[in-house]
Design brief:
By secondary structure, this protein is an alpha+beta fold. The protein is 30% helix and 23% strand. Strands 3, 4, 5, 6, 11, 12, 13, 14, 15 and 16 form a ten-stranded mixed beta sheet that branches. Strands 1, 2, 7, 8, 9, 10, 17 and 18 form an eight-stranded mixed beta sheet that branches. The protein is globular.
């Protein structure tokens, strides 16, 4: 007897992996439901370093497949979402005291064959790594590595004078939490049901389906699904062993990555890749026009009941690390905001958090109604992870169509990679009341959808109440009706970063509007 179910797939978790899988599966014709207990991207997926990157340092761990896949994906994703992702150049200052982390395979090899190096990263090895970085992914858009004279270039101006030489290479910025929301929007447009503030309380497994109890603001209800995808991120183990009631040795190691934001430290638009004497690395990145983002740390985070925060020790570490490079020291009293996220890395037995693989692992359980568990992963390879998940899901459903997401534009992203500046100019010509910064913010957040939000407005007053920092009732209504936002926090820290520019009274008014 065939049981009629509400969904083919019920996905647990509204982070980048869950929403990416929901979009891909809905586009193949499956009936998809996604349950997220909080807001979309409310945990790890809004707390990254905001980069589409291959992972230069992963080459030292010989993770060649992961790096190549990520490098190829940079340009695939860039074409699909040029409003929320864009190319950036990274400046890697060189000095002779740079060290490997002792646990890396490359460090161990060099220590064996060249013991006189004493763990140092030689210039030739860095250049070789950057050559691989340039060539593994088959670049077509991003420029290649070059050498920078820090004594004469603008890149050297904010740095200590001991740095004379740097390498400059390419990666991409991405608005991480907006990426999650756009995947959810596209999934919904293709038929998926996206359920935020909806917690999976219980799941009962039968031979051919799951009966799942959900809880939201309206109370409890049961739904049924042919298959569950556990994409709960840091909670994947809790869902597997607790909510789903299964015993598994598979698990993740929770690693906290913390970041600090300070007022703008330099005038150019390039990022810095700093290497420490302990072998670790951090980035310093231009952020939201007026700030610099510095991160990240790698620290074990063993208790999910503790909200991840950037500890005073981590703040001190990041300030001290950056101060070894910048001429003007970075101090804790400069910090205007911090954020931390817990990365659910697949536990491969590595000795320290930095050495854990950033690759993903998918485990399919078909002992009864099928279950797919998602372990690990990184934001750059989320689309490929979704394709790999659908390959496994496809073994449980007849006639599923093939891969389709490569190059398909995200909502608002249906324009050329170099089209942002012309779009901003066009928007200002059409809506003469927009300032340059306001128009840029709208295009960078919504792309071609910015015109839909602005509608027939002839002046600022036509957009409704002004909540500050160019945020109007028209935009908040869009976020409520199209982007699953329910509170001020959803708006000012995940759909945007306007929390850096708004006061408490303005935030309270936004929250009242969103909850009305």
């Amino acid at each position: 007897m065939t049981v009629e179910t509400d969904f083919d797939l019920l996905i647990i978790g509204g982070g980048i992996n869950g929403c990416g899988i929901a979009r891909d599966a809905a586009g193949r014709g499956l009936r998809v439901g996604l349950a997220e207990m909080n807001d979309l991207a409310s945990a790890t997926s809004s707390a990254s370093t905001k980069l589409f990157h291959g992972g230069l340092r992963y080459l030292e761990y010989f993770e060649i497949r992961l790096v190549r896949e990520a490098l190829v994906e940079r340009e695939t994703l860039l074409r699909a979402m040029p409003h929320i992702s864009w190319p950036m150049r990274f400046v890697l200052p060189y000095h002779k005291d740079m060290r490997f982390e002792s646990a890396t395979p490359t460090s161990k090899l060099l220590s064996f064959f060249m013991p006189w190096m004493k763990g140092r990263r030689p210039s030739w090895l860095i250049r070789f790594g950057l050559f691989l970085y340039d060539t593994l992914g088959g670049r077509k858009i991003l420029p290649a590595t070059s050498t920078v004279d820090l004594r004469t270039g603008a890149e050297g101006a904010p740095l200590q004078k001991r740095f004379a030489k740097a390498y400059e290479y390419s990666d991409c910025w991405v608005e991480d939490s907006r990426l999650v929301v756009l995947n959810a929007r596209d999934a919904e447009a293709r038929g998926a049901k996206i359920m935020v503030r909806t917690k999976v309380i219980d799941a009962v497994r039968s031979d051919d389906h799951w009966t799942v109890t959900l809880e939201d603001n309206d109370g409890l209800r049961d739904v049924s699904a042919k298959m569950i995808v556990n994409a709960a991120g840091p909670w994947v183990g809790d869902v597997l062993n607790g909510t789903l009631g299964l015993n598994s040795r598979e698990g993740v190691r929770l690693v906290r990555g913390s970041h600090i934001v300070v007022p703008k430290l330099y005038d150019h638009d390039k990022c810095y890749f700093f290497q420490g004497e302990d072998g670790r690395i951090i980035f310093a990145i231009p952020y939201e026009d007026d700030f610099t983002l510095i991160g990240t740390t790698d620290a074990d985070h063993n208790d999910l009941s503790e909200v991840p925060t950037c500890t005073p020790e981590e703040q001190d570490y990041l300030c001290a690390f950056a101060s070894k490079y910048f001429e003007t020291p970075v101090t804790r009293d400069q910090i205007v905001w911090t954020y931390s996220g817990v990365r659910p890395l697949y536990d491969d037995g590595a000795e320290n958090a930095s050495a854990l693989t950033r690759d993903y692992t998918l485990k399919l359980d078909t002992n009864a109604a099928p279950l797919l568990n998602i372990f690990g992963g990184k934001i750059t390879t989320y689309r490929r992870l979704a394709e790999s998940a659908l390959a496994k899901i496809g073994t449980q459903f007849d006639g599923l169509s093939g891969d389709w997401t490569a190059g398909v534009a995200m909502p608002g992203g249906d324009f050329q990679v170099d089209g942002v500046a012309p779009m901003i100019a066009d928007l200002q010509r059409e809506y003469t009341f927009l300032t340059a910064r306001w128009a840029q913010r709208l295009v960078r957040a919504y792309g071609t959808d910015a015109r839909i939000i602005l509608g027939e407005a002839k002046g600022v007053s036509d957009l409704g109440e002004d909540f500050g920092a160019t945020l109007t009732a028209a935009e908040l209504t869009w976020l409520k009706t199209h982007e699953f936002a329910r509170s001020a926090e959803d708006v000012i820290w995940r759909r945007s970063k306007l929390g850096l520019r708004l006061c408490d009274d303005q935030i309270a008014k936004i929250d009242s509007f969103m909850r009305s």
